[in-house]
Write a structure and sequence with these properties.
With about 350 residues, the protein is of the alpha/beta class. The protein has helices spanning about 5-25, 35-65, 80-100, 140-150, 170-180, 190-195, 240-245; strands at about 25-30, 30-35, 110-115, 125-130, 155-160, 185-190, 210, 215-220, 225-230, 255-260, 275, 285, 290, 305-310, 310-315, 335-340. It has a six-stranded mixed β-sheet with strand order 3-16-4-5-6-7, covered by helices on one side. The protein has a six-stranded mixed β-sheet with strand order 8-9-10-11-15-14, with helices on one face.
């Protein structure tokens, strides 16, 4: 019975932590962390803490036995237990090394075609989309980002916010953005980092990009008309301005809303295409579950990729960079997306 006391104490501590994490309101920056995501994070912490405690006990018990300070047998003396713990430790170290050093630099390129066939003699409009750069320096993936974008031969490049992690990343950001080429322009919207921390910095100076701050731009490209409404990020934001801008758009055009987060998806039914980022696809995606954290009021409903909401096609970009507090990517490669837009349906 005495041997069960440490296990019971640990179980009580874990249950108390889970209850505290789930019932309390948590904030990340100025955003509220959904309770479901707080619970998922808490469970992950408990599992990781249990493994860390087991590894610590294995090392401490082995050292005590060698020094003659411990007698008898512990559960970690069993060969199966030792082998399991060492295998899990090796796996954890490999995953961390991969998630920190390899996947964040392994830039992917994807292409999606939307809409019907273009009119005779016309081609689809090519729109490159990037988001959540969180630039930190002139190294991969940021150093190859412009090359990847230019290889797609875009008519238009769209940036969906969150440009840098710290002011030291500004030169690399501007260098990468300035090197991107697009026949019909380069447009951006501000993300929460840009609004909270970097609103006084000349983020897009000399890059050829410009911010859309609650305004709409009309473009005629390859015989099609695109009406792009861009909204500036705000902590308490509704979609009324976006819906107003899109309702006034020319009929028969692509009505595209650019906003940093998926939070306004249900509030802009006039949008043909809603482009956003912010979630990073969770940045860590667990097999069969997906993102632990999205920091979206919709939770996992729009965690990444293509979704439908009524008549609106929603695309949530997984981002390029990483949050500095969790500087890893696992199962969510950084991505450059190319949309080929045919005739709007």
């Amino acid at each position: 019975m005495l041997r069960l006391i440490p296990l019971l104490l640990w179980a009580a501590l874990a249950l108390g932590f889970l209850a505290w994490a789930t019932l309390r309101t948590h904030h990340v920056g100025r955003m509220i962390l959904p309770r479901s995501e707080a619970a998922a994070i808490a469970i992950t912490i408990v599992v990781a803490g249990s493994l860390l405690a087991s590894w610590t006990w294995l090392l401490a018990w082995s050292a005590a036995k060698r020094l003659g300070l411990a007698q008898g047998r512990s559960w970690v003396d069993r060969p199966a237990a030792r082998l399991t713990l060492l295998a899990l430790l090796a796996l954890a170290l490999l995953l961390f090394a991969y998630g920190r050093l390899l996947e964040p630099r392994w830039l992917a390129t994807r292409t999606l075609r939307l809409g019907g066939a273009p009119a005779a003699g016309e081609e689809a409009v090519r729109v490159a989309v990037i988001s959540d750069l969180h630039t930190e320096g002139w190294r991969r993936p940021w150093s190859e980002l412009a090359e990847r974008v230019n290889a797609l031969d875009p008519d238009l490049v769209l940036l969906l916010g969150d440009t840098i992690n710290r002011p030291a990343g500004l030169p690399a950001l501007q260098r990468a953005l300035a090197a991107m080429r697009a026949r019909h322009g380069k447009l951006a919207v501000r993300g929460n980092w840009d609004v909270w921390y970097w609103h006084e910095l000349p983020l897009l100076e000399g890059t050829g990009f410009r911010f859309l701050d609650d305004e709409r731009v009309s473009l005629a490209i390859r015989g099609q008309r695109l009406e792009l409404a861009g909204l500036r990020y705000a902590d308490e934001r509704d979609g009324r301005r976006g819906e107003e801008l899109l309702r006034a758009a020319a009929p028969g055009s692509w009505r595209v809303l650019l906003y940093h987060t998926p939070d306004l998806v249900t509030e802009v039914p006039s949008a043909d295409l809603y482009l956003c980022g912010h979630t990073h696809g969770g940045q860590i995606s667990i097999p069969f579950y997906g993102a632990l954290v999205t920091l979206s009021k919709h939770g996992k409903r729009f965690e990444r990729g293509l979704r439908r909401e009524g008549r609106t096609t929603v695309y949530v970009h997984p981002g390029i960079g990483v949050e500095p507090i969790v500087p890893v990517r696992l199962g969510v490669r950084p991505e450059v997306m190319l949309f080929q837009l045919g005739a709007p349906r």
